[in-house]
């Protein structure tokens, strides 16, 4: 009975690769662990696993590496590999394995020794090629020939602001002929994107306020019951108090989102919070357009992290009524 129980347990266990390493294609692509690199050729010196990864040279989206505007590594998404070119036939699984381990293309050409040759189990190489297929689909999900699909924020105020910004963006031509649509699967999750950008937008506004105060010693930050006649602060803090301050003839310098966002908020009777959501949505959509006709989600996320939000804010000055 005990032997039968052990047998049942063994049969129920998932299969494990012979080398004992879980064959995770994404981990292989991003970290290189599970593949043994050799420098200069299949017989070259062995390098530590993880020292080279596909993503490190070919980009997190597999679209190819660039440096100084020049391409330094080709695209390796499966769509690119499986498409024949004038230089080579299309790759299939065996051809991909040969390229990876020997550096030989389907046309018989040996690629540059700058790309290491990798040794690994059949399971590892199969997992990597499967990930390249999945990567193509994930990177371009929601991206159609003439549409780009986004998911809206859950918050009602942010949702309304996002819809208004999308409408304005589409009126301005969209992104390389693509209109932004609402749907699933989405290329862009506006809920997460706005949540990422809003704190950074507020920090950029606070930094601009500090510059104003530093450059003009006569300005004071807003404080309740202050007797200051010249005030500089963010629109978030000044917003509810602006009518009273202006009616008292106080000079106000308010730092807030770009005029397009503020104009929409004023016309719609919305507050500064909604204006910021509009500005964050427009910043994200403009970034998508800047990525060109063939954006990928990884490149968008990378550019979003480095996006300079200072151009998205404005100083609004007014002296009394």
Automatic annotation (TrEMBL):
Q: Where is the Cytochrome c domain?
A: 20-136
Which terms are listed as keywords in the entry? Heme, Iron, Metal-binding, Signal
User: Which positions make up the signal peptide?
Assistant: 1-17
Q: Which GO terms describe its molecular function?
A: electron transfer activity; heme binding; metal ion binding
Cited Pfam families: Cytochrom_C
Matching InterPro entries, A to Z?
Cyt_c-like_dom (IPR009056), Cyt_c-like_dom_sf (IPR036909)
Q: Specify the domain of life of the species encoding this protein.
A: Bacteria
List, alphabetically, the SUPFAM superfamilies matched. Cytochrome c (SSF46626)
What is the protein's given name? Cytochrome c domain-containing protein
């Amino acid at each position: 009975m005990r032997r039968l129980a052990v047998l049942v347990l063994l049969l129920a266990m998932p299969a494990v690769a012979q080398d004992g390493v879980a064959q995770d294609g994404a981990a292989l692509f991003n970290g290189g662990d599970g593949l043994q690199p050799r420098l200069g050729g299949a017989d070259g010196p062995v390098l530590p696993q993880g020292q080279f990864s596909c993503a490190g040279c070919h980009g997190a989206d597999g679209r190819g590496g660039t440096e100084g505007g020049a391409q330094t590594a080709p695209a390796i998404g499966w769509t690119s590999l499986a498409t024949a070119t004038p230089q080579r036939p299309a790759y299939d699984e065996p051809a991909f394995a040969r390229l990876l381990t020997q550096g030989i293309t389907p046309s018989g050409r040996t690629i540059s020794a700058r790309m290491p040759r990798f040794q690994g189990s059949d399971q590892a190489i199969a997992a990597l090629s499967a990930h390249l297929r999945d990567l193509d689909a994930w990177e371009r999900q929601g991206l159609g020939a003439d549409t780009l699909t986004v998911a809206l924020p859950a918050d009602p105020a942010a949702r309304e602001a996002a819809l208004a910004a999308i409408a304005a963006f589409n009126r301005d031509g969209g992104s390389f002929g693509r209109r932004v649509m609402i749907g699933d699967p989405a290329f862009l999750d506006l809920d997460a994107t706005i949540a990422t950008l809003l704190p950074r937008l507020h920090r950029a506004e606070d930094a601009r306020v500090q510059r104003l105060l530093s450059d003009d010693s006569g300005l004071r930050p807003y404080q309740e019951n202050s007797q200051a006649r010249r005030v500089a602060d963010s629109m978030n803090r000044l917003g509810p108090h602006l009518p009273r301050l202006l009616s008292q003839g106080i000079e106000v310098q308010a730092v807030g989102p770009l005029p397009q966002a503020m104009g929409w908020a004023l016309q719609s009777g919305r507050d500064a919070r909604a204006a910021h959501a509009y500005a964050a949505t427009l910043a994200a959509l403009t970034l998508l357009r800047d990525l060109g006709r063939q954006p990928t989600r990884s490149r968008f996320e990378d550019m979003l992290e480095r996006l300079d939000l200072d151009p998205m804010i404005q100083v609004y000055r007014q002296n009394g009524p």
